[in-house]
Amino acid sequence: MSNITAPATHESSFSRRHFNWIISRVEDLAGGRRNAEDEEILAPANCSSDSEAEPCRPPRGPLSRIRSALRAAISGRAARPTGLGSRVIGTIFGPRRGHVRFAIQGDPRARPALLVELDMPTASLIKEMASGLVRVALECERKSSDAVGCGKVARLVEERVWRAYCNGRKCGYALKRDCGAGDTRVLRAVEPVSMGAGVLPPEETEEGRPRAEGEMMYMRARFERVVGSKDSEALYMMNPDGKGGGPELSIYLLRV
């Protein structure tokens, strides 16, 4: 069987002719014609012979499930995975007179694998970054049941409450949050940006007026993700020109 190359972009799709060819190849691999066991699986169960009765739908067999998976993948409706590799996209954003949020994405169009809001004003983080290197540490506690081996240890990005430190100074807590409409609006707006910083217009209230927090500031970059263990990860901002000197921003996730 010849290799099938997937489309390069999300919007691209196979033609119907290619799709039908894939389905036929899957059926060939599955044994071509259905055998007696397949016919028994796909046959309608307890169907009435009365023509006026609603026809029974046969249970979905293996080939039907394969077809559904292929249709979802080719049409682009399959959910994008949130798994993280060694390269991720990090976005720091927040209203000018609000708190900072930090999002980690494995793919620009994927939902954030981690989205936290720090108890730190956006203006304070901007001052820290203007002064030079910034080191942000997020530290969470291991639950007592996990510490004695009675429970399953959650993934580090699934922890919800963190103690936050910036350049060695404690700056309150960070809480994991769901990606709401406002967060989605920002991430979609900066989706084409691989690395850079800027300002977005403020969100509007239900009455159509700008919110009091002011403009939305953001900084977006690619990070190198280094996993030390299940309890420690580090994110180092990558320099686009490839020069040395160390990353200007580093974020550490620790579980103690």
From TrEMBL:
<feature type="region of interest" description="Disordered">
    <location>
        <begin position="43"/>
        <end position="62"/>
    </location>
</feature>
<dbReference type="Pfam" id="PF04759">
    <property type="entry name" value="DUF617"/>
</dbReference>
<dbReference type="InterPro" id="IPR006460">
    <property type="entry name" value="MIZ1-like_pln"/>
</dbReference>
<protein>
    <recommendedName>
        <fullName>Protein MIZU-KUSSEI 1</fullName>
    </recommendedName>
</protein>
<dbReference type="GO" id="GO:0010274">
    <property type="term" value="P:hydrotropism"/>
</dbReference>
